[in-house]
Every structure is written in structure tokens, then in C-alpha cells.
Amino acid sequence: MFNKLLSYAPVQIFSALSVFALIAIQTRFLAVSEYGLLAVLLVIMESTRSMFAQWINTALLRFYPSAQSPEREQLLCLSSSLLWLFAAVAVLVVALCLWVFSLFSWSNMLWVALLFVAKGTYTYYLERARVCEQVNRYRYATLTQAVLSVVLTLGCLWLDGALHSALIALVASNAIALLFTLRRNPQGYKGTPVLRREFLHYGLPFMFTGALGVLATRSDRIVIAQLTSLEQAGLYAGIANLLVGLMALVFMVVALPLYPELTKLTDKPQQLRQAHSRYGGYLCALAIPALTGLCLLAQPLITVFLGERYQQLDLRVFYAIAAATFILNLRGHYLDHGLQFRLRTQWLPLITAVGFALQLALAFTWVPKLGALGAALALLIAMCVAALLSLITGRYYRYYFTWPAQLYKTLLATTVMGAVLYTLLSNLVSLAPWQQLVIGVLVGTTTYALMHWLLNTFAIRSQSLNWRRRSV
């Protein structure tokens, strides 16, 4: 499992860094109000993609690794057919959403729809490359998309610093990266009625869960824009996009390569529990120190990646959103597995809907009084409630979570890292923000890694000795 993690982790880390760069470019070239509008358009695109495309990827990940050869070809044909069928419906939904929010123009419609098609198709074929264990194709596509998203966004916005230039760059980067993974379907394979029924029964609940999930985590931009202004929505969206993107990628470094390995064990309960415990340990070992480091480095992080204009937002907003995104990903990449492994995904839309309804109710109550802080607190509380419901429902269906492996060592290492970083930063106030950030990241990472080495977490010392022997 650890070797599988290392096969994908480097490109995921590079992809995470590209998200930082992309947000930094967009927030510097676009006015705050324009960035707020971009955030609203991306909410519409992502919620539509999660509803009409992402569920297909999720179902493919669940069934493909444990399927036999004939069924695998059938799954590939079935999933790709469904993708194009639902894509046609999704374009109409995009147009409807733009009209509802008074954002419809033929230009907005064209580029948001093209971005949906490009990103939806790219992520689908990227997942196919992963489940088919085509590691090199996955790496090339991920690296290409990461580099081009930054380079093309910088070039397009430098030539014309308009909103649609940012959308054009995103469309092009996804479309070009798609070429590395785009492959024909096997010929002559059609899914059996039983296979189609199982695929749809498992996957369709994720259609509504995905859309509700995006709305629950990003509708706060729309609420702020409606109740305050696009400028306030832009300030909030800059920080939220930075944190949501980074935290999602931290979790995906572990989830992308290792989740298919877990699905291979769904018929072996004892082995699954052991593997899931180790998987949870890897998640915590990356995500807990990431959350701690982000909160401690909040001020230089905002200045370096978003600019001085975004410093006016209350740091409490940053902390609340960081905690909410951590809990959101912990639920999606760990707690929801109890229902997924038990094939009880029909409960996921209801759990997400409860969280979404609570988030909206709290946001409409608190945003007029507290502004962006009210939206951030509403998001945090809603994510906590949804995660707790997922855990309780999974246990009700007799999936008993095992304590994540080596969690106590992760907490100890994170505590030491946080203490060192807090002490260090209090002595770096005279340095430039980028210098504080670089020194803080280097010292924090080194301290954390050294603590795990001393604690021998996941037998890391013996793993290192084995690698050295192989290289000799």
C-alpha cells in the first residue's frame, strides 16, 4: 500500500502547488469583484459536473478493481456511454443556472459549458487510467494539466486581464491534458442488465450527493454575493478556494492511489478493516499537520498567494474554513466509506442534504450580522453535523471503524511541529511574508518528518533501509 502511495504522490504534490500558483495569478490580474464572479461561475460548473459526471467516476472506482476481465470491459463501455449522455443534459442545466442567477450571456454560457465538458471528460479518463493502473499516463496527464493551467492562465490574463481569459485557459489546459489519457473503448462489449442496474443503483445517489456537496461547500459565495456584494464574495472566495483546493489535494494524495486497493477487499471484512485502518493512518499523517501548518502560516500565506487586498478579511474566517474543509474531506475520503463498502449509498444524499439545509439556514441568519465570518461558521457547523451523521449511519449498518493506524504518533509529531513553528514565527516578524512562508514550511516539514523518523511511524526506518539495500 505504501509503495502504491509513492507511485502517485509526487504528481499530486506538484498539482497541489499548481493550484496555489493558479489562485495567486487569478487574484492578482482580476479585480476582487471579477474574482467573485469567477467564483460564482465555477460553483455552477462544479456543482453541475459533480451531479452529472463525477458520480460515474465514483461508481467506476468502486466496481472496476474487484471485477473480472469481461466485466471490466463492460464497465468501461457503460461508464463512457453514461458520461456523454449526461453531458448533454448538463449543458442545459448550466444554461438554466446562469439564467436563474441573472448571469446568462452567450459568452458566459459558451465558456462555462466548454469548461464542464473539458474538465468532466478529463477527470473521467484520468480515473480510467488510474483504475487500469496506467501510472505513466496518469502522471503525464496530471503534470500537463497542472503546468498548462498556470502557464496558460498567466499568458491569457497578461494579454487580456478579463474574466473570460481565465476561463479560456482552464478549458485549454484540461482539453490538452485529456489527450494523454483518451482511449477507445473495447469493441463489442455491452453491459448486462444486472451490471447496469448495480452500477446505477450504487452511482446515482452520488449524483445528488455530489451536487449537494458542492453547493454545501460553495453556496456561501453566492449567499455573500446576494446579501452583501461581489467584492465581499471575491475576498471570501479567494481564501476559501485556496483552502478547499489545497486540503482536497492533501487528502487526494492518499485517496487517489489507495482507495481502489480497498475496494479489492470488500469481500474480505477482516482484511478490509486492517487496510482501512492503515489508510486512515496515512490520511491523518498528511492532513492533520497540513491543517496545523496552514493555520499557523495564515498571514504570510494570504499575502503571498492572494495579495495585500485579501488581508482585510478576518483571520477567524481563514481558521473556520480550514477546519471545515478538513472535516469535509475526512468525511468524503474516510467516514463515507462505511456506507460505500456496505452498498448503502442511498443515505449519502440525505446526509448531505441535511448539512446543506443547515448551512443555508445558518448562513442566511448570520451573514447579514457577521458577514463572511457568519458564512464560514455556518459551513463549519454544517460539515461537523454531516460528518457525525455519516459516522452514525455507517455504524448502524455494521461497519465498525478501526482507530487509524499510528494516529497517536501523528498527533505527537504535529504538536511538536506546531510548537516549533509557533515559536519560530514570533521571531520572523521583521522578514518579508514570502521569507516567513518559505522558512516556516521548511522548518515545519523537517521537524515533522524528523519526529516520525524518531517515532518510527509506519516502520519508516525499516522501509528506508530496504530501499537503500535495493539501490545498492
Automatic annotation (TrEMBL):
Annotated protein name in UniProt: Uncharacterized protein
Assigned keywords, A-Z: Cell membrane, Membrane, Transmembrane, Transmembrane helix
Pfam families, A to Z: Polysacc_synt_3
TM helices/strands, residue ranges: 5-25, 37-61, 82-102, 108-126, 138-155, 161-179, 199-216, 236-259, 280-305, 317-335, 347-367, 373-394, 406-425, 437-460
Major subcellular location class: membrane
PANTHER family given in the database record: INNER MEMBRANE PROTEIN YGHQ, PST FAMILY PREDICTED COLANIC ACID TRANSPORTER
Membrane topology according to the record: Multi-pass membrane protein
InterPro entries according to UniProt: Poly_Biosynth_Transport (IPR050833)
Cellular-component GO terms for this entry: plasma membrane
Subcellular location: Cell membrane
